[in-house]
Specification:
The chain is of the alpha/beta class. It is built from 11 helices and 5 strands.
Length: 220
C-alpha cells in the first residue's frame, strides 16, 4: 500500500485528490494539511511514501516545506511531488535540485495522477515535458564549476549511463541500447546515485545537464 499525504490550502482540492487516489486499491491517503508548516508536521508524524505538495500557499509555502522535508534525515524515504497550476514556475529548477521527485500540473487526469504516485513511490522521477524543458535549460545555462570534479569520479560506463538517464531513458531502454541486462542498468543507476550524492533520478538528470554530458536538443 502506497501511503500519501496531501498538502494544499484548498479543501476541495484535497478532497478531490483524496477521492481520485483512493479509488486505487494500492493507494491510501494517511494525512492532509492546509499549509506548508502544518504539512511538515503531518509528514513527520505519518512518514508517508509520497507527499503531494502545493507550491503556493499562505501560511507556509510548499517550496519551503519541501526543503525542510528533504533536509530531514528522518524523512529520507519520503518522496515529494509539487503540485502547481502553472508549468512556468520560476522555482522549478531549484526545487528539483533540492530533491523534489517532480512536478504535476493540477489539470493532470485521474489515471495519470494515480500512475504518477506509483512512479514516484518506486523511486523514479516525474516531470511533465514542459517542466522538464525548463529544468534542463536552467541546468545547461548554469555555471559548470563542478564538472571536472563530478565526472572524474565516474567510470566511462557510468558516464554513459548518466548521459542516458539525462536523456530521459528508463532502465529497460538503457539496457537495450547498451546491450546489458535491465538488472545491470539498475545497478549502474544505483551506483551513480551513491557516487554523486543524488537523491533520485531527477537529480541525476540535472547533473547530466550541469556536467555537459547532455545538452538541450542534443543527441546522446
Amino acid at each position: 500500500m502506497i501511503r500519501v499525504v496531501l498538502v494544499d490550502d484548498q479543501y476541495l482540492v484535497r478532497e478531490g485528490l483524496r477521492g481520485l487516489l483512493e479509488r486505487a486499491e494500492d493507494i491510501t491517503v494517511v494525512g492532509e494539511a492546509a499549509d506548508g508548516n502544518a504539512g511538515f508536521a503531518v509528514v513527520h508524524r505519518e512518514r508517508p511514501d509520497v507527499v503531494l505538495m502545493d507550491i503556493r500557499m499562505p501560511g507556509g509555502d510548499g517550496l519551503a516545506a519541501t526543503r525542510r522535508i528533504l533536509a530531514d534525515p528522518d524523512l529520507a524515504e519520503v518522496q515529494v511531488v509539487l503540485l502547481t497550476t502553472f508549468d512556468t514556475d520560476e522555482h522549478v529548477f531549484d526545487a528539483v535540485r533540492a530533491g523534489a521527485a517532480g512536478f504535476l500540473l493540477k489539470d493532470t487526469g485521474p489515471d495519470d495522477l494515480r500512475n504518477a504516485v506509483r512512479v514516484v513511490a518506486r523511486g523514479d522521477a516525474l516531470l511533465s515535458p514542459s517542466v522538464t524543458r525548463r529544468v534542463m535549460r536552467a541546468a545547461a545555462l548554469g555555471e559548470p564549476a563542478r564538472r571536472g570534479e563530478l565526472l572524474d569520479g565516474l567510470t566511462e560506463r557510468e558516464r554513459e549511463i548518466l548521459a542516458k538517464v539525462g536523456a530521459g531513458l528508463a532502465n529497460a531502454e538503457i539496457a537495450e541500447q547498451l546491450f546489458i541486462s535491465p538488472a545491470t542498468a539498475r545497478t549502474h543507476v544505483s551506483r551513480l546515485l551513491a557516487k554523486l550524492g543524488a537523491r533520485d533520478r531527477a537529480q541525476l538528470v540535472v547533473l547530466a545537464y550541469e556536467t555537459g554530458l547532455v545538452t538541450p536538443g542534443g543527441e546522446v
